[in-house]
Design a protein that fits this description.
By secondary structure, this protein is an alpha+beta fold. Helices cover about 15% and strands about 35% of the residues. One of its GO terms (biological process) is formation of cytoplasmic translation initiation complex.
Length: about 700
């Protein structure tokens, strides 16, 4: 058909009027085009090739070692190992001089531009050795810096945003403490309420629905509270608990703050093990990350008291990292063959670690100063099965619980080791005395629990059979061996909880939910013995005035809630809360008062006591007055309602009489009625007894 039509159109008889000349699209003479190519074809011009195409994924690594050709392969291996963690490297170029020696810089091309940006972020300022610190930049940055305008323009002034006061909780004039209560309202949905422990009843500060997926945790100084979510964790603070920072670490199960709240460590699972990330709290930047092989390792990193160092234990070594660079101290680990455990002093940069027995060499406990790495004390121990390190909170003493054996039984391949004739030693290191003397306390019974008095020189031990154990209290003094000051016999307790201020202790049985409050300064008398069935946690407030016991839904599903007691064991408050999860007192930062001022306050405490007692009475009187006014208002409201209803009842009397057959029943006297009991047979059954 097309051919036929073409033939028809090409015929001599075709009508020429149907096929006129094509229109002319040329611009007329003197035409001025005022539309630019960018306006007309902007989308297409944006896709045209440029000189920088292909270099977005290239990084320039400066300040690498200058090496001879014989050492070049080793250098390439080291640098490639570092940079390959950021992505797939496509090409690497090391410029060399006439002699084949590297010039001190290299070009690396990644598969994607995002991998190049990651390399700049992670490896810029990376310290390779004492003399070489990498300077890593994107190749495109050089073009950006070449095109700096000659005329400088000041940056735009940004609007100042008022930050929330993170420390307003310590400005309360009456120094009331705060606490949080968490309860699960739905799966992976936990409601958290924040309260202030004022008199006569706690005051609610804030309640957040769906605040966290699992639980919450306070920072050591009480500045932040951390919440857990699927994408990561977030920290909150200020008067209304605003979001301060978020840290993207999917699946985070556990977090740990540094003592001074400068850093946050998050622990989350990966297919190959636990991934640990150290974050800067102020900036939210990732400082360093690690992957731990095998199962979950909670609290793998341990911090020095001043945040200057963080350490972890490796195979036959301790890795100590300096902050804020997080490089290894002196760029190398401390080799300690046979190390089994370590712990920082809570007040000094001193590490205590212990080494197991090896090839007839006794076990050893060592104290080491950091950063000098100088060993200040060693203690050899024989027939050791295990050790536990317990620092006193003030750092004055270190107790090493030593599990010792009389006989050792091994199989032929030394795969199964059995310890026979177990007994226990407590090695007490006097940290503040010259040459750090060590005293020993031996106990032949099974040890169930150990606890130092936080402020003081006492420690307590639960020993014996679990159902009928003994609780012994020892006192440590300068120049003499620890002395037994009291033994409480036949006690069924499993845990010991000292008051943060010392003197008072709670002996708890967290299996049965029984508690005993003991005053260590008054001949260790038991002031109260309350019980809280199925209670699984005990929390002292920071001042040592109140104790809370809780039954969490993590343990049981019914009768969950918490009880609050005074330090003497008197019950103050019982709260039943469905799906109660946890109760946490808000920590307080250390006092700024010096020791002399604190001693003066304790000496003149009676003078301050009268002032505080008067405030408490005034507060209770004010509360009583408010309660009476509230009751009077409720009574007045009820009387108004009653008067209104009586008037309405009287207005309806005529209609009521008419409906009742013109009989006034309002004043009808009720006749006396005799009550009669009628009994009748309901059912009869016959049972045959064989």
């Amino acid at each position: 058909m097309a051919k036929k039509k073409s033939e028809e159109h090409s015929g001599a008889d075709a009508n020429d009027s149907d096929y006129q000349e094509e229109p002319n699209f040329e611009d007329p003479p003197n035409f001025v085009d005022n539309i630019s190519d960018e306006d007309l074809l902007g989308d297409m011009l944006a896709q045209r090739p440029s000189e920088a195409d292909g270099v977005e994924s290239v990084v320039v690594v400066d300040n690498i070692p200058k090496v001879e050709p014989v050492r070049l392969e080793k250098l390439k291996s080291v640098i490639n190992k570092l940079f390959s963690h950021c992505g797939d490297i496509v090409n690497v170029v090391y410029p060399v001089d006439e002699e084949g020696k590297t010039k001190g810089y290299a070009f690396m091309e990644y598969k994607h531009a995002g991998q190049a940006e990651e390399a700049v972020k992670k490896l810029n300022n990376h310290r390779l050795d004492k003399n070489h610190t990498f300077s890593v930049n994107l190749f495109t940055d050089f073009q950006k810096y070449e095109n700096i305008p000659e005329k400088w323009e000041p940056p735009t002034v940004q609007t100042f945003k008022v930050q929330s006061d993170l420390y307003n909780f310590i400005n309360d004039p009456d120094a009331y403490d705060q606490y949080c209560v968490a309860a699960e309202t739905a799966p992976n949905c936990v409601q958290v309420g924040f309260w202030q422990n004022v008199l006569p009843e706690p005051a609610e500060l804030e309640t957040r629905e769906r605040f966290t997926d699992t639980f919450v945790k306070w920072s050591p100084l009480g500045t932040y509270v951390v919440t857990f979510h699927k994408p990561g964790v977030a920290i909150w603070g200020g008067s209304s608990f605003q979001k301060i920072q978020k840290f993207p670490h999917p699946g985070t199960q556990f977090v740990e703050f540094s003592p001074c709240e400068n850093y946050l460590v998050t622990y989350g699972p990966t297919p190959t093990g636990q991934k640990i990330i150290i974050w800067d709290i102020r900036t939210g930047a990732e400082k360093r990350s690690f992957v731990a092989d095998g199962m979950s390792v909670l609290s793998m990193f341990r911090w020095s008291h001043d945040d200057k160092f963080v350490a972890r234990m490796g195979e036959n070594s301790i890795h100590i990292y300096e902050t804020p660079s997080f490089y290894l101290l002196d760029l190398k680990s401390i080799k300690i063959p046979g190390i089994r455990g370590f712990s920082w002093s809570p007040t000094d940069n001193v590490i205590a670690y212990w080494v197991e027995e090896q090839n007839q060499i006794p076990a050893r406990v060592t104290l080491m100063e950091i950063p000098k790495k100088r060993e200040t004390r060693n203690k050899n121990l024989f027939h050791v099965a295990d050790c536990k390190l317990h620092w006193q909170k003030s750092g004055d003493y270190l107790c090493v619980k030593v599990d010792r054996y009389s006989k050792l039984k091994k199989d032929k391949k030394d795969l199964d080791v059995k310890f026979l004739g177990m007994f226990y030693n407590f090695e007490i290191f006097h940290m503040r005395e010259k040459e750090i003397p060590v005293d020993s306390v031996e106990i032949r019974e099974l040890i169930l629990a150990f606890a130092w008095e936080p402020i003081g020189n006492k420690f307590s031990i639960i020993h014996g059979e679990p159902n009928s154990s003994n609780v012994s209290f020892y006192e440590v003094n300068k120049g003499v061996k620890p002395s037994l000051v009291k033994r409480l016999e036949k006690k069924s307790c499993t845990h010991l909880f000292w008051s943060p201020r010392g003197q008072f202790i709670v002996m708890a049985n967290l299996t049965m939910g029984t508690f005993e409050f003991v005053d260590s300064t008054n001949d260790y008398i038991i002031s109260a013995s309350p019980d809280h069935f199925r209670a699984s946690e005990v929390e002292w407030d920071p001042t040592g005035r109140y104790v809370v016991t809780g039954v969490s839904s993590w343990k049981v599903k019914e009768d969950t809630g918490f009880n609050m007691y005074t330090f003497q064991g008197r019950i103050i408050k019982r709260t039943i809360l469905k799906n109660f999860v946890q109760f946490l007192w808000r920590p307080r930062p250390p006092t700024l008062l010096g020791e002399e001022k604190q001693k003066d306050i304790k000496k003149n405490l009676k003078k301050y006591y009268a002032v505080f007692e008067q405030k408490d009475r005034l507060r209770l009187t004010r509360a009583s007055k408010e309660l009476l006014e509230k009751r009077a208002q409720l009574r007045e409201t009820f009387m108004e309602y009653r008067t209104k209803r009586i008037a309405e009842w009287q207005d309806q009397k005529s209609r009521r009489v008419m409906l009742r057959g013109h009989v006034d029943t309002d004043n009808l006297e009720t006749e006396e009625v005799d009550e009669e009991i009628v009994e009748f047979l309901v059912k009869e059954e016959i049972t045959l007894l064989e």
